[in-house]
Design goal:
heterodimer; A: mainly alpha; two-stranded antiparallel ribbon; 4 strands; B: 228 residues; mainly alpha; Arp2/3 complex 21 kDa subunit ARPC3; 10 helices; ABC/ECF_trnsptr_transmembrane (chain A); membrane (chain A)
Chain lengths: 292, 228
């Protein structure tokens, strides 16, 4: 019993890239709507109704993106009205709306992705690709809080020596830049010491180990195969033009054939997969607790 | 690379990706897809360029000290991204490239992009940001002798790369929005991005002006003292 975010990071990442890949590289309106709806439901499932600012920002951006296209592009047959001697067409409006749905959907997906892919999981993935890059990333992540602690220390030391006062702007700036300069020197020296210490303890002599082990369990493999299969069907439907939708010069929606319908269904299933996992976990958890 | 242990295979990739795979993707993509799918080609080229770099970096026996210095610079530029309106990442990337070489510059640019985006939001643009900032560092490393010799030239390089960065990212915005390149939308995007373009160029020039000399002194001191 694991929630979706506890699956193997490689599997989770592949699932994300399958979903966003289709959403980014295809402009079939039904798929875009599925992607946007799924992204919002997924985000709300994970966060509840908090993050009001994020939602607000996304929907303002949605309005801007949807309006940008009809104002700039004047392709299309059906003229709705004329503004500043430029025709605003139905086709361009719908195209802009479709693009906005696509972009906001992908933005929601990536917001959830950022939440699920913690830095630890990122290190697991980059460690599999390139251990050296993974080391640099993990050290840099550690340095950021370390630097803020160290500069607080330097600042109190400087204050104790009476070297800087806050009430004068020029003095303040001078003091801050001195602290920054000291901090950078310290950081570089400290880095060298860290490196020597690492080498003395045998860095690079064997394979690197992870703090947390993410094994490949049965459920991981099942999720991986299911994602790739569903992605394959959808990609085949998109690639073979079974799902074609022309905006210009006039709206032209060919009825999807069998492969097209299969593609739409499998994309829907692909998006629902983690929601099923989360719901199942929640229900089981409730059931177990009710048994106590 | 851990996934590719075989040496022959790795060197094969080093030759195969830049000289065969990227041109093939570009040409075949232009022929096979219609205009709407250019974004796939752009993303594929960006990702394969980054992979190529990772493969090359893994093969070299880069010293531990050098790697840690790169990590320090990445952390500094990550922290610098929290400064409102000004963006010191490109300037720090250029400074690193001048003193530690183009490869270190590429790493600082690319890794700062991917790390700070964990805070500022990952997205399909991450690959392009990584590539853009990385290339700014790589070219600064190639031009390092000239740039180190003349300060106005360095500031000019900073201003130009700031503008170029914004222009390149706007190409990506248009490709993504429109699924094909449209010159009118591109111009509109450029105009709407003017404040960002100005802020990139100004912060590059400002931070290079302020930081190039002190950072240079510190980095060369470390280089001499510890032989990085």
């Amino acid at each position: 019993m694991r929630s979706f975010s506890e699956y193997n990071p490689i599997v989770t990442a592949i699932w994300f890239f399958c979903v966003t890949g289709i959403a980014m590289f295809c402009n079939y309106p039904v798929l875009m709507l599925i992607s946007l709806a799924g992204a919002i439901v997924f985000f709300i499932m994970r966060n509840g109704l908090s993050h009001g600012k994020t939602h607000l920002f996304f929907w303002i951006l949605f309005a801007v993106l949807a309006l940008a296209n009809p104002l700039v592009s004047h392709n299309g047959k059906t003229v709705l009205f004329v503004m500043n001697h430029n025709p605003v067409t139905l086709e361009a409006t719908l195209y802009g709306l479709n693009s906005a749905v696509m972009i906001i959907g992908v933005l929601y997906w990536f917001r959830s992705f950022t939440q699920i892919m913690t830095s630890e999981k990122l290190l697991y993935i980059t460690g599999a690709l390139s251990p050296k890059l993974s080391l640099i990333l993990s050290m840099a992540l550690r340095y950021v809080p370390l630097f803020s602690r160290q500069s607080a220390k330097i600042s109190s030391a400087q204050k104790a020596m009476g070297l800087f006062s806050d009430d004068n702007i020029i003095d303040d700036l001078k003091g801050k830049s001195r602290i920054f300069s000291i901090m950078v020197t310290w950081a570089l020296e400290n880095g060298i010491i860290t490196a020597d210490s690492m080498e003395a303890r045998g860095y690079g002599t064997g394979r690197r180990s992870q703090m947390r082990r993410f094994g490949f369990r049965g459920a991981d493999i099942a999720l991986l195969i299911a994602s790739l299969l569903l992605f394959g069907i959808t990609a085949a439907a998109v690639g073979t033009d079974s799902l074609s939708f022309e905006f210009y010069p006039a709206l032209n929606a060919g009825a999807p054939d069998t492969l097209g319908i299969l593609g739409i269904i499998s994309y829907g299933l692909l998006i629902i997969l983690p929601m099923i996992i989360e719901t199942e976990v929640n229900l089981r958890w409730k059931y177990l607790r009710s048994g106590i | 690379m851990l996934l590719i242990k075989n040496k022959c295979l790795r060197s094969f990739i080093r030759i195969f990706v830049p000289f065969i795979l990227i041109p093939v993707i570009t040409v075949a993509g232009a022929l096979a897809f219609d205009e709407k799918k250019h974004i796939i080609i752009a993303l594929a080229v960006a990702v394969s360029a980054l992979l190529l770099f990772a493969a090359g970096f893994e093969k070299k026996s880069t010293g531990t000290r050098r790697m840690v210095i790169v990590a320090v610079m990445v952390a500094l530029s990550f922290a610098g991204r929290f400064i409102p309106f000004l963006k010191p990442i490109a300037a720090l990337t250029i400074i690193t490239a001048l003193y530690l070489g183009g490869e270190a510059g590429f790493l600082v640019g690319a890794l700062s992009a991917v790390l700070s985006n964990f805070y500022f939001g990952q997205g399909p643009w991450t690959a392009f940001q990584m590539l853009a900032w990385g290339l700014i560092g790589l070219f600064a490393g190639i031009l390092s002798e000239k740039l180190l010799g003349s300060r106005p030239l360095l500031l000019l390089y900073g201003a130009l790369t700031g503008i170029a960065y914004s222009f390149i990212m706007d190409i990506w915005t248009v490709l993504w929005y429109n699924q094909g390149f449209d010159i009118k939308l591109y111009l509109a995007a450029l105009v709407s991005a003017v404040p960002y373009t100005v802020s990139y160029a100004v912060s590059n020039v400002l931070f290079l002006f302020l930081l190039a000399k002190p950072f240079g002194e510190k980095l060369s001191r470390i280089k001499i003292k510890y032989g990085v």
